[in-house]
Amino acid sequence: MTESLHPDNLLRRIAYIALWAYFFTVPFEYSFVLREPLESYARVTGELVLLVGTAAVIVTGRARRWKAFHWLALLYLLLVSISLLWDQSPTEEAEHALRQYLQAVPVLLLSWEFARSVRERTHLIFGYLVGGLISALLIMREAFLLHRALYSAFRYSVEAWNPNELAIVFAVGLPLALYLALDRSLRASSIQVWTGWLYLALGSLGLLLTGSRTGLVVGVVGFGATPFLLSRSSRARIYTLLAIFASLLCVGLTLIPAGTWHILSTVGSQVQSGDLDERVKVWRFGWQAFLESPLFGSGVGSFRWASGTLYNAHNTYLEVSVEQGVAGLLLILGLILSLFARLKHATASGQVAGIFLLLTWVVAATVGHLAESRVTWVVFSLAILFACDQTSQDAGFQLQPADQ
Question: What's the domain range around 47?
Answer without folding.
Answer: 1-60
